[in-house]
Amino acid sequence: MCINGNEYAKCQLRKRRIAFEALDNGILSCEDPKALQRICDGLDEPQIDRLLRKWLARLPHPSDRHDRAAGYRYAQEQVQIESWLGLIAQAARLSAELGLEVAECARLIKGYGDTYARGLSNYRSIEARLIQPTLAGQIPLPRAADAVASARTAALVDPEGESLAKCLAEIDGQASFAIAAE
Length: 182
Fold this sequence. Notes:
Number of strands: 2
Strand order of the largest sheet: 1-2
């Protein structure tokens, strides 16, 4: 949104029925120059904030459900959902418990803006570090479901990702001990 101070001043002068001679992007003369100056001085940060909120409330929001259905994020979400459903099917063929834990990971992705981005990032970390390696046979099935559940719980408790990072580091540490023991 762009606020043109000259147009704002012209609108205010018209509202107050103060005569003026307009230029394309300015005012050549005004019947009450002091009133014009007060109007211009009144276009401060709080007034700009009020104008912004007034017009945002009136304008259609780009993220209503119809726009989302036709938008880029919707298309991305549909691809992500199809991928997630495929992972659930693959995991369930190996272990019903693992399939359920992969399905529960959908709880991580919610909201808009930063909340959505953090949840998606947490999900992708779990997918890359636990789900995909399990499906590739790199993580033993008995450990996999518990690892995914632990990581998902850590991500839900702390959406910022610090708990998830610690949890994944612990899981990685347990894997290295298992390899060393072999």
